[in-house]
UniProtKB/TrEMBL annotation:
PANTHER family: CRYPTIC BETA-GLUCOSIDE BGL OPERON ANTITERMINATOR, PROTEIN GLCT
Coiled-coil intervals: none
Record has Methyltransferase as a keyword: no
Keywords linked to the UniProt accession: Repeat
Recorded GO MF terms: RNA binding
Lineage: Bacteria, Bacillati, Bacillota, Clostridia, Halanaerobiales
SUPFAM superfamilies attached to this UniProt entry: PTS-regulatory domain, PRD, SacY-like RNA-binding domain
Top-level division of the source organism's lineage: Bacteria
Protein name, entry field: BglG family transcriptional antiterminator
Protein source organism: Halanaerobium saccharolyticum
Amino acid sequence: MTKKIKCTVVKAFNNNVILVKRKDNKKEEVLVGKGIAFGKKEGAAIKLDPEKIEKSFVTYGEKFEKEYFSLIDEMDGEIIRVCEEIISIAEENLGQLNQHIHIALTDHVSFARERMESDMVIEFPFLEEIKILYKDEYKVAVKALEILNNKLDTKLPEDEIGFITMHFYAARENTNVRNTYRNVSLINELIDIIQDELNIELDPGDSNYIRLVNHLHFSIERVNNNIDVQNPLIESIKSEFNQAYSVSDKLSEKIKSELDLEISEAEKGYMTIHLQRLNDVNSL
């Protein structure tokens, strides 16, 4: 027989979410499970069957507790339960995520369902880019959308895969979703500049497109993290591949205007080589 967990109810938020203080380690934990909090009163000493606990986590910090508890106080308990199931799957595949994912993802899903019920469509325009940049997070997001639609009996659109992917990536890298979206949007704009300047059309499914997206991403990451690169051939590159260098100059100006980051000559040189190769391939 499974040993039951002895604890005291601190607060029952809804039928599916409860905050308890465990008797064995004296720690407060949020427990999530279908009907786990039904009929539980604050201050009551209870024994819980571990098999009914779908998710448990310890909250850290007063700010997080205040935000999370405020959220679940007004949230549909089933959304919380399903989102916690998804977060568990994400952590199994992606590793430990920043605890803010418990707030961010749940709030996003609730709002997404409200939008859908009100016939408000918000498209995610960068699905191809994030599929390349954040492929592990993307795979989990595909599964997450399937779970949401099945268990919440809803029909959230494919665009939600993009938004959920960004939440996973932000939580994995301890950054915020706004920065992630901004960077993906910038890469999309840089690709538009490249296509216009080189008069080429790139296929998102092509290996050259994938290499380009990755190159732009890592260039921005290197500059953002102050990683210096050396390029002893920069003068030869500038003179030999004049058009491609001119395009890399325009890309650098765009990055500077959007992110206030200065692109080095060496980094421009590597961009130029990549653009020249791209131009050669598309000229065949």
